[in-house]
Amino acid sequence: MSRYSAADIEAKWQAAWDAAGTFKAVRSDDKPKYYVLEMFPYPSGRIHMGHVRNYTMGDVIARYKLSTGHNVLHPMGWDAFGMPAENAAMASGGHPKDWTYQNIADMRAQMKPLGLSIDWSREFATCDPEYYGQQQSLFIDMLAAGLVYRKKATVNWDPVDMTVLANEQVIDGKGWRSGADVERRELVQWFFKISDMAGELLDALDGLDNWPAKVRLMQSNWIGRSRGLQFAFGLTENDTGHDRVEVYTTRPDTLLGASFVGISPDHPLAKELERRDPAVAAFCTDARKGGTTEEAMEKADKLGYDTGLTVRHPFDTAWELPVYIANFILMDYGTGAIFGCPAHDQRDLDFSRKYGLPVKPVFIQAYSKGVLTGYPLGFAMSSAFNLASSNGDLSTSSTGELYFWQDEHAYVPPKSESVKYVHGFAGAELQTGAEGVDTAIAFCEANGVGHGVTKFRLRDWGLSRQRYWGCPIPVVHCDTCGTVPEKKENLPIELPYDVDFSIPGNPLDRHPTWRHTTCPNCNAPARRETDTMDTFVDSSWYYARFTAPHATTPTAMADAAYWMNVDQYIGGVEHAILHLLYSRFFARAMQITGHLPKSAIEPFDALFTQGMVTHEIYQTYGRTGPNDRHGEGHGFTQYHFPEEVENRNGKVVLKATGNEVEIIPSAKMSKSKKNVVDPMNIIAAYGADTARWFVLSDSPPERDVEWTASGADAAAKHLARVWALCDRIGNMDPNVTGEGDDDLLRAMHRSIHDVTVGIEGFGFNAAIAKLYAFTSALTKSKAGAAAQKLAIRTLAQLMSPMTPHLAEDIWAHQGGTGLIANAVWPVADPAMLTHDSVTLPIQINGKRRAEITVPRDMPASEVEKLVLADDAVIRALDGATPKKLIVVPGRIVNVVV
RNA sequence: GCCCGAGUGGUGGAAUGGUAGACGCAGAGGACUCAAAAUCCUCCGCCGCGAGGCGUGUCGGUUCGAGUCCGACCUCGGGCACCA
């Protein structure tokens, strides 16, 4: 008997697929197309288990679709621009390009042994000039279409590294790399006009039925549509040259609780005051300080500066409100100015308490939860404009029925709760939430106070990066013509190779010649743009490029029309927002610029977000020695690689010392915690099929899967069992007959059905469980040779998307024709999925008490008779009379007493 | 703070409103072996000798029947957030 040797058969079948060109995607109308794409990797140099899981899932789909008669496109490429290459260059003195291409070569070599059904002829890296040259061409078209523009923007500037930092790269207000205090700087940057499409990108989410609801929701929140009122407060007499302050609010129903108006330090009015008054300038400078990160803003105090200016309330010209400059107001959302309603907004309440501003409730709960205990209920103004008592000192109001806010918590009514308005809107009692807001907007519009507007949280996408290793922005700055796009015949604008990373900043800026060029317009000497594009641009259209990777335009329309959209996209949920949103934007932009057909407005028809591969962490505690800088007595944690530990009598111990280790369950694989397994080691030890089988088997694909040595062993043992089974059946005399042919064939058809359903519904773990069961049935079967041979061939087919090499080998041994990869997927015979007789459980009042086997088509009335005559039922009824009998044909019987 | 999602044996997890715990791991017992490894077989939710009872985070509801649907709560996880 031969032994299962993964190394031999895997190399053999990979060579066979290559030789046959099995996975080369060919455009033709004879079959339906199917485009499977996994999010392409960054070439870090090593593949990890997350890659293995991601690509295996895509491979299962791709191979299954190939077997079910589709033209499959399943490409692979490299998201190859980005900072790690530059950082590596700075650390080791190498070149980002060399580093990147070497890593690509290494990773490709690691990926090939997995036996993925990829069309490698379409491979590209985003740092190939052929790719980014087309990206530059696309950029020029987008510029012409008005989808790109330049503006001054505030950025995080690292003064040591002399570069812009993304928000995530600012830690505690300091640059993640240099540790320098980050400054907010205004730079002229390029932007994509994604905000113009905010409404469209939001509305179209509804049509993405095959996307996870969670991802759609995250995108929806990110785009952030809000409905509100935009209106102006008129300024009282002043000499600033301003006569009004424009404000946007989503809570116009609280307008009568206003107690101040706040403007951003970057608001035009604030800037005007800043020019005149050094005290204002000092305040504004201070307020602008600090990063734009979440933590920085969280920590910052709410600071306000009383400008001395006042505005009139739009509903009561006698009612004046002070104008503050406040550090928490953002210039780039709404109008850069707000009104504060402290009774119903916690931040406004804190601010008002700090600066001694009045707090006037607008509405109160219909019932009290303690927040408003002690306040009289039910008072409403007779008219919104009858507001004499709203202005001034509430405590001495003549009516004696006004309200003080003594609580330190603002009352924010929950959605859909009935509230009574205290001030305003004609004594209305309204639902809170959208209804109250709509009512308030309608009321304000009717009275000539502003108008309802829809705003989005989504802002334009700033794409300029002061980096070398990215796609150069293909424009030229000319003293006479201004900013001019490059001529397309000059593309690609290639990155120069001879750059110097020994000093900080963008090497393109310092390059002796690269930036000097001539104006495409007037031929006068001019300067190239030295900023490069955000790497998210590279990954926003690569899916389209795969349809014609060697085209001399960004896409080839006929190919794009044939292959787009991606039928199934697979990747990590960490890209739920940015990458997927940017790709959706680009698909639209490429349609506008004529690079994608109208049908490809949404690039990804179906999206699947897979979970991570996790592993236990093994740790021991040490004590520091006398030389440790922490001094004696400090404990420290030491981590150990999985291969350093073993299981001895139920205890996990260090192989070297025998000391027991502590186990931290299931954490994301991380080199620093040493809870990693290298796919290369797994493939060397067990083979690719085992690794593929295991990453699919243990957990549902959308959830995290924990890599365990015992699980991998089990997978390997199972594959070896299947191999041995094939060997045994292969040696059977073809003429031998046996017992239970029908049972085996029924199990086979059940298995075909279940595995097919499992693969189509991304239930890979369930499909594998069914394959275990079928294998077990076949192992125990005493059926004749013909049935067993058919069963093992079918088993191989059903396993082939997951363990393609083993499946090919079995197929070949069992006399299958051609490659199993090209074999037609088996179809379950419906007649073989049901039996002539069924066993029905019998419940008494919903509790299972007995069972009965009856012919499948027996009428319910007959079944009832048999049930009531059943000994076990009579015993369980114990003389009680059944009130009702429910027979669900083919499923269950319930006796109600 | 706002918005989502999830809670099932020792463990990963199965289960169109219809026999809860498939399949795997771990564990126990057995066969083979001089012995071990490998392999194979059996058992494996909890209580109970047993008949039986109880069981899908908690409490209620809908239903002939609820892990599944509805409501409230608890716990964990995720996303967003000076967004006016």
Characteristic terms for this protein:
globular; 26 helices; alpha+beta; 36 strands; about 900 residues; four-stranded parallel β-sheet; seven-stranded mixed β-sheet
> Could you tell me how far the N terminus lies from the C terminus, measured between alpha carbons in angstroms?
62 Å
How many H/I helices? 26
Uncertain ranges: 291-297, 365-404, 424-429, 625-633
Portion in helices: 25-40%
Walk me through the structure.
With 897 residues, this protein is of the alpha+beta class. The chain is 33% helix and 21% strand. The protein is built from 26 helices and 36 strands. The longest helix has 22 residues, at 709-730. It starts with 5 loop residues before the first helix and ends with a strand. The protein binds one RNA strand of 84 nucleotides through helix 7, strand 9, helix 10, strand 13 and helix 11.
